[in-house]
Amino acid sequence: MKLRATFADGYPVRFARRPLVLDEGMVRVDGRLTVAGVFGPGTFSSLDLGGAVSPIENLEVGLSTELTGAVPAPGGIGLISVIFSPMASYGDVPIYARYQYAQSETALAAVDLVLVLPSNTDFSLTAGLPLRILELFGLFTMDMNINIRYRNGDKYAAFIPNPSKNTADFTFSGASVTNITDNGYVEIGGGVGLVNVGGGAGAKNVVELPFFLGGGYTYKGRVLADIFAQFGWQPLMIANGPPNVDTFNVGKTWYVTVGATVHTKALFGKNRP
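Structure (tokenized):
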């Protein structure tokens, strides 16, 4: 087997080889700055900070959106989240747990549970099944996620007169990640979602198709740091949307994110140096 660069107790440097959870005892901190379009005047901008830890083998818990293999989350969500525009406020707080229940040399599978405590939007609870297939043909990794979300609100409340108080989303997302070198990587992804199921009249069962491009560089030293940038649309296409919302709203749903994640070596547990 080809030797690959590792960090700490065998944790891969290559972004495309990462497991779905941190190694036991590892800690991750992350930050990102997002600028995006909005349905209205101005632009959206936010700074989101978060973190995670692996308390036991195969389990990761955190207050963050930077889970391995996940498509980019909207700005305005983090342990500490500050929204600068179009109206200054604090963002929502995500709390998640991920358990990796299966792994081999070629594939990894896990289960997610994510709770979002509202400060700016709505309370939500998401259950997900992430799957990562590692470097097919020695070239690219495939990430796939199936998610079911309950939302205590209506995603399109601003567009209809009588929004619902309880809705659901069913989404499938995927991405391809390629390490050009051990330290540099690029990614492309998207998905399809049936959202706002049970929403108010005029905005029920909306179909959304997101899309993104990204890339980053990994620094290995006393810590392992990924510096990344992403660009895309959330979503690129909307079908069966509410009145006055076009199928393509590229001038309103675009976003650009730059950020970094920093991983420590195991601070406790069996992997501690």
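The two ends are 25 Å apart (CA to CA). Helices lie at 250-253.
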